[in-house]
Specification:
alpha+beta, Phosphorylase Kinase, domain 1, Transferase(Phosphotransferase), domain 1, Jelly Rolls, 3 domains, 7-stranded mixed sheet, 5-stranded antiparallel sheet, 8 helices, 25% strand, disordered N terminus
Length: 515
């Protein structure tokens, strides 16, 4: 540690006077790093600083710091919503003077939200909440590992909880000797912390209670500490933390973690459909301030409750009509002359007029002639991870077959890493189309045509009205009848094989009305 470490305090400046320190958010003693929120005086915005401490005269410490900074510069090429973007790297002689008493800094975007350590200060979170929090970060780790980048998620104070209800690597900067396996171990430790409120690794904040260990030195399973934890999540955490030499039970890839978390999420959604309570709120301050944190999972519609409600409304309507008929019959009988002399004006009851039949929704606007229908906007429709190349999606409807939009390249096909990716088209008014033509060179790609009620629906709220496997060239996809809508999604649920990986290209998408 640097002898000038004590000079780093709120209000002080660092980085040759550019960054004013606001508040410290933790320390990674093993990496010799302090985590600060600071103000960029030049750009007028808050940033996250990972300050590397050490004596510049210590050649080994300086070498380690340079290696950490080099890895941070390499990770700046990686982009994901759950990883704070590295915007600058400062080193001795390059933004930092020897008199400051630090060896370097990693500057990243500030991540608003909640401190992870504060989140578990009162104990564990619900198991399904823990899985929902960790899944997006695990997806980021998997994508980074595919490009050979180690993120360094093995310390809880490097991670924050965003307002969208996901874990975010807020203070990037992997240690010099960190490996892909260390990221896997870190994910397991984060899961263990969320499930139990205890930290299972020796390196970590002293404020967190340590996980108890078994006689063989391994940590006690989360389910032992919290009986409500599902066995699948408990085993996942323990297997991630297992020694790398344990090739039988240890988990060594982030893809394996992601598969379990996605399965837990699917089971949770299924349980909600049978009436169980879903994941909703993670943290809500009493004052209802800006730090309210929600999960990313949208509430699922409950078809069972909707069906019961429809039946109840139908029964109530029938009963209401029966009561009205009985009352009308009684009034008519009271004033009629059946067998007696009427005491008042004679009323003649006529049969009630039949209710007006509502016209069925038109299959298409009356003034819409058969032929091409041009959307007003096309965007990426994404339900997991970051959107695939959103900057080039307009090419699929630019009238030029020579331009194309391409998905990311994946090592596993959909739905292993994500359920799919789509393109949502918006029209200026509701339309009922008969056919969608997809021009693509990626033979074997499978697509579904889905309708939506809004521009940002959940996948479960969309309805499949057509689809099929694409051929090399133009594929004509006939659509079933459906009520007119302004939003239509071309959903890619299976990618084509592309040189050992999986990716798909689409050159043009056209929409046809009429029959």
């Amino acid at each position: 540690m640097s002898p000038n470490q004590g000079q780093l305090s709120p209000g002080g400046v660092i980085g040759d006077g550019r960054y004013r320190l606001l508040a410290q958010f933790g320390a990674d003693e093993q990496a010799g790093a302090l985590f600060w929120r600071a103000r960029d005086n030049q750009l007028g915005r808050d940033v996250a600083l990972s300050v590397l401490l050490g004596n510049p005269a210590d050649r080994n410490a300086a070498s380690q710091a340079r290696r950490t900074l080099d890895r941070a510069m390499h990770s700046a090429t990686f982009s994901h919503p759950t990883v704070s973007r590295v915007i600058d790297v400062l080193s001795l002689g390059n933004g930092i003077s020897p008199s400051e008493g630090v060896l370097g800094m990693v500057v990243a975007d500030w991540s608003p939200g909640t401190d992870l350590v504060d989140l578990v200060a009162d104990g564990a979170v619900r198991p399904n909440t823990a899985a929902a929090l960790l899944e997006p970060l695990t997806s980021a780790v998997e994508q980074a590992h595919q490009t050979g980048i180690v993120l360094g998620v093995g310390h809880p104070q490097r991670v924050r909880v965003t307002r969208d209800g996901a874990l975010r690597l807020a203070f990037p900067g992997a240690q010099p000797d960190a490996t892909l396996r260390d990221d896997v171990r870190g994910l397991g430790a984060l899961l263990y912390l969320l499930l139990t409120g205890r930290w299972p690794l020796p390196e970590g904040p002293r404020a967190l209670p340590a996980a108890p260990t078994a006689p063989d030195g391994s940590v006690v399973a989360p389910k032992t500490l919290q009986p409500t934890v599902p066995s699948e999540l408990s085993n996942l955490a323990v297997r991630c933390l297992a020694d790398n030499r344990n090739t039988v039970s240890g988990i060594r890839t982030s893809a394996a973690i992601l598969a379990v978390l996605e399965r837990v999420a699917d089971d949770d959604a299924a349980n909600h459909e049978t009436g169980q309570i879903p994941v909703t709120q993670v943290v809500e301050p009493e004052d209802g301030g800006d730090d309210t944190v929600w999960t990313t999972r949208k509430p699922q519609r409950d078809p069972v409750r909707r069906k019961r409600l429809a039946i109840a409304i139908g029964i109530l309507a029938v009963a209401t009509v029966a009561i009205l008929i009985w009352l009308v019959t009684g009034v008519i009988g009271f004033f009629s002359d059946g067998g007696g002399t009427p005491s008042g004006p004679k009323l003649t009851a006529s049969a009630p007029a039949p209710p007006k039949q509502q016209a069925p929704p038109p299959s298409a606007p009356a003034n819409q002639a058969p032929g091409p229908v041009k959307p007003t906007d096309m965007q990426i429709f994404n339900v997991a991870d970051d959107p695939d190349n959103p900057g080039t999606v307009a090419r699929v409807n630019d009238g030029d077959p020579g331009t194309e939009w391409k998905t990311y390249s994946y090592k596993q096909n959909f739905p292993s890493l994500k359920p799919g990716v789509g393109i949502i088209a918006k029209f200026d008014k509701p339309v009922a189309l008969s056919q969608v033509n997809v021009d693509s060179p990626s033979e074997g790609t499978s697509v579904q045509i889905r309708t939506a009620d809004s521009q940002d629906p959940s996948l479960g709220d969309t309805k499949i009205v057509g689809g099929g496997d694409l051929t090399n060239g133009q594929s004509q996809l006939k659509l079933n009848d459906y009520p007119p809508t302004q939003y239509l999604i071309v959903w890619v649920n299976k990618l084509a094989s592309d040189d050992g990986q999986y990716a798909s290209k689409i050159s043009e998408i056209s929409f046809l009305s009429g029959k």
